[in-house]
Amino acid sequence: MSHDNKTEQTVLVDELEGLKTDLLTLNMGPQHPATHGVLRIEIKTDSEIIASAKPYLGYLHRCMEKHSENLDYRGIIPFVDRMDYLAAMNQELGYCIAVEKMLNLEIPRRAEVIRVICAELGRIASHLMFFGTYLIDLGAFTPFLYAFNEREKILRLFEEVSGARLLYNYIWIGGVWNDFTSEHLTRVGEICDALHQQLSQYENLVTGNQIFLGRVSNVAVMNEELCYAYGATGPVLRGAGVKWDLRKNRPYSIYPELDFDIPVGKGEMGTLGDCYDRYYVRMMEMRESIKILRQCLDLIEEGPIMAKVPKVLKLPPGEIYHRTEAARGELGIHLISEGEKKPYRLKIKSPCFTHVSMLPAVAKGLMIADFVAAVGSIDIVLGEVDR
Amino acid sequence: MFDELLSDLKAKFPSVSIELDKREVGDSVLIVDAASLFEVSQYLKESTRWDFNVLQVITGHDLPPDFIAVTYILASYRQNSELLLRVKLGRQNPKVKSVVPLWPAANFQERECYDMLGVQFEGHPDLRRILCPEDWEGFPLRKDYKAAESYNGMEIYPQEKLNLADRQFGKKGQKSVEVTETVE
Lengths: 387, 184
Fold this sequence. Notes:
With 387 residues, chain A is of the alpha+beta class. In chain A, 50% of the residues lie in helices and 13% in strands. Chain A has one domain: Orthogonal Bundle (Cytochrome-c3 Hydrogenase, chain B), CATH 1.10.645. Chain A is globular and about 70 Å long. Chain B has one domain (2-139): Beta Polymerase, domain 2. Chain B has helices spanning 2-12, 37-46, 106-117, 164-168; strands at residues 18-21, 29-32, 54-63, 67-76, 81-90, 95-97, 120-122, 150-151, 154-155.
């Protein structure tokens, strides 16, 4: 399908609306493998061409925000994990930093480095998951197995360090609860080396593949204007060519000391901000994460891993909104404290929730199969959308 | 930044009450009249000086007995700044003008705020519940919310499924409850 074809189809939809043809209602989901969870999208189609799409959320709503009003600050960390279960480390980091800012806590150096190592490994694991499942959406099964091979190594490491494969409860307020041994650090280095080679292989296999390019280039263009209007963040925003990354622009933890680039979409294979650009940004981000990990391995030094935190944690009255760059975009934690042991209100700004709201804006005129490619390219985790 | 912003807004909207809630820790909040929220946000979005081009999130919290506060968190990606803008609405009939015409992002965010706290956004194109089912009763994030006993004929918290031992765990003055029921 070339780009010209698609604009003709859009014109066709408009013409047919005047002709009183009936539109067919098609439910995509909630149990559809391509929705990466339980998302229902009601699509109105004219044969293969989508006239409108309406997302229905809430199938995975677990009232996390209400729950957290009845939990102490440490008890919330496992709940934050369960929101984005594919990059739980990044979620924990975001939440803990917000609480620590309120407490004005100084984190030991070693803990900071370990946190960044975990966050970047989490980002890689999440992007590998995207790579695998996205290609399944597009009809290629093999890359999934390749991606899971590498992802498994990271999960094994996390399992040994924290005791859990996916939901870690590893980053605590004031530091991390368990130390990396020198053997673990060597393993991080090995993961980096292996992944570096593998990434070139993935790119040979997939990125230049004509069938793949045919499915992703010029599809579901989310340009800069649309991204700002809907508040898109993370790889979606960078895919539109905006050089914006909180790790650089509003740095936290030890990111200011680290040297890395922000990959942005260039529109090489079609229009700027299409599915290819979002895919490309994620693939390049993994390379940048490897760079960060290698620097962290040099930076790490002996020392304590936990700051002195009072046993009963009470935050001073006030509120904070803190954003961190999680794997899927900007994770915002809005915390209101009344000086109690429990938060008065905790609001999570989830990047996926915003990205789902963009789907209706790009759906019109797409083929159904292309819409699957569009949903996959924003890399949603429904646990985070519904919270 | 906040002081400049405050004086600029006061010069621009002399009749509107705008105050700055400054805290020792954390972020400061700009509180405006609910009636003039739309105009103030429009100015913040469109002025080249402040340029808040992105609406990050709309969140609300309950302040019984009188108020519900709705917070608009704005960010500027060109100026690299962020702002918490708040309106306080009457708890009996919370109503505020929708900002969907300014930021389409507000569509889902306002729906969530309506779903959780029952705030009516006037002029919203499609104000329905978003996370809870459409026939859900009550607004869960209000402080006085109590879950119904049943929903569509299904009992919520059926007695035989409560894990009482878990609930009592670690509570002062109570030893863990002995579970006498046998599981077949």
